[in-house]
Write a structure and sequence with these properties.
single chain; about 400 residues; alpha/beta; 8-stranded mixed beta sheet; 5-stranded mixed beta sheet; 15 helices; about 35% helix; globular; binds adenosine-5'-diphosphate
Length: about 400
């Protein structure tokens, strides 16, 4: 029997899972199982928000990504998050027969001001995290529901919450503050930043790619959710997301930065209520809203609809603007790292962003970019440009194992 950590990442329309063997006690932990169940929906909306026609799909792989089993549901069949967790609790234990699962680590999007590091879950912690649901309405309820389900099914199994906000606890005061009255700021209304588990992973492996990859680095996490982080010596000093994960770059379905006056106008002049505005800003905006085609970058790149091309243009424009802003906070730029679905795979977006950043000293190696090399800048480029696959689950497993070994159960 091998000790193992199970990692659950319950997102807005998918539940990803991994299991890591922890014999070696040293990172990187060895992934022994991985997979996901995606395109989850509700009875009113069978598919995910950005792709309502998609049908639920489950895949489980071994540690090398080799597919072990798959299952698809019919398009019309709604599979909720609860259904998906129940399915996984049947499906995974026989596949982990040779492992003794010592604890479960969860991705939890918002840790607020209270949690600057991972936390062992108990009733009090759950209660605190529930208060943060309005700050991450698309993710936090699903993160916590998965914890609650496991708590009922396996009450003795330790669970550890790992937060997307925690990495940004190094943000200087000036980068956290909003220009709002002190009384509001005192109630925790400030920039928290997100995608911290991804940034923490990138910070932990950067030196393996290039020992010089420290100093002043901007990491671009471009997935369905998208943000950028300015790191100095591996620590977050500025980031594009804010109080909620709506701020910053336009995303698959989220609007990104917006004049707050627009929200007031929607409420007072267009007669929308708060729920309608929430749905619009989180689920109907971003690439999906602008293009009217899809929130998925692959679909936009494949589309010849001019609105899809305009959405891509705006996406690159806003990334380029933020790159300049983050370089200014760092006082210069030594390297850029692309990561997550779009960052790791889209030759086109990387090329557009790098071309727009020529003024910063970025020189793209077109062939290396086409070939998906790790380093995609020329040798002469003043700023190194890297593509590094992220692994948030690895970070969660490390923290969860550290919690297990530091606490006597
Ligand atoms: P999540 O934030 O849900 O973890 P991912 O990091 O997997 O999402 O990123 C999903 C995004 O990556 C989607 O917009 C998808 O279209 C995009 N993507 C994945 N592969 C490619 C590709 N080969 N070319 C362009 N975009 C891609």
């Amino acid at each position: 029997m091998q000790d193992a950590i199970l990692v659950i990442n319950a997102g807005s329309s998918s539940i990803k899972f991994s299991a890591f063997a922890v014999q070696a006690h040293q990172p990187p932990l060895q992934r022994v199982l991985g997979g996901k169940i995606e395109s989850l929906g509700t009875s009113e909306r069978p598919g995910p928000v950005d792709n309502p026609g998609a049908s639920p799909h489950f895949v489980v792989t071994d540690g090398n990504g080799q597919v072990l089993a798959e299952k698809s549901w019919r398009t019309s069949e709604a599979l909720s998050h609860d259904d998906a967790m129940a399915f996984l609790l049947e499906e995974l234990p026989p596949r982990l027969e040779k492992c003794q699962v010592r604890a479960v680590g969860h991705r939890v999007v918002h840790g607020g001001a209270a949690f600057s590091s991972p936390a062992r879950v108990n009733d009090e912690v759950l209660h605190e995290l529930e208060k943060l649901i309005p700050l991450a309405p698309l993710h936090q309820p699903h993160n916590l529901a998965a914890i609650r389900t496991l708590k009922i099914q396996m009450p003795d199994l330790p669970q550890v919450a790992c937060f997307d906000t925690a990495f940004h606890h190094t943000l200087p005061e000036v980068a956290r503050a909003f220009a709002l009255p002190q009384a509001i700021s005192a109630r925790g209304v400030r920039r928290y930043g997100f995608h911290g588990l991804s940034y923490e992973y990138i910070a932990s492996v950067m030196a393996q790619f290039d020992p010089a990859l420290s100093g002043r680095v901007v990491v671009l996490h471009l997935g369905n959710g998208a943000s950028m982080c300015a790191m100095r010596d591996g620590r977050s000093i500025a980031t594009t997301m804010g109080f909620t994960a709506l701020d910053g770059l336009p995303m698959g379905t989220r609007c990104g930065s917006l004049d707050p006056g627009v929200v007031l106008y929607l409420l007072s002049e267009l007669g929308m209520d708060a729920d309608q505005v929430l749905t619009m800003l989180y689920e109907q905006s971003g690439l999906l809203g602008m293009s009217g085609v899809s929130g998925d970058m692959r679909a936009l790149e494949a589309s010849d609809d001019p609105a899809a091309q305009r959405a891509i243009e705006l996406y690159v424009y806003r990334i380029s603007q933020q790159l300049g802003a983050l370089a200014a906070t760092l006082g210069g730029l030594d390297a850029i790292v692309f990561t997550a679905g779009i960052g790791e795979h889209s030759v086109h977006i990387r090329s557009q962003v790098c071309c727009a950043a020529a003024w910063l000293g970025v020189e793209l190696d077109t062939a290396a970019n086409q070939a998906h090399a790790s380093r995609i800048s020329t040798i002469e480029s003043r700023v190194g440009v890297w593509v590094i696959p992220t692994d948030e689950e690895q970070v969660i497993a490390r923290h969860t194992w550290a919690d297990c070994t530091s606490t006597s159960d």
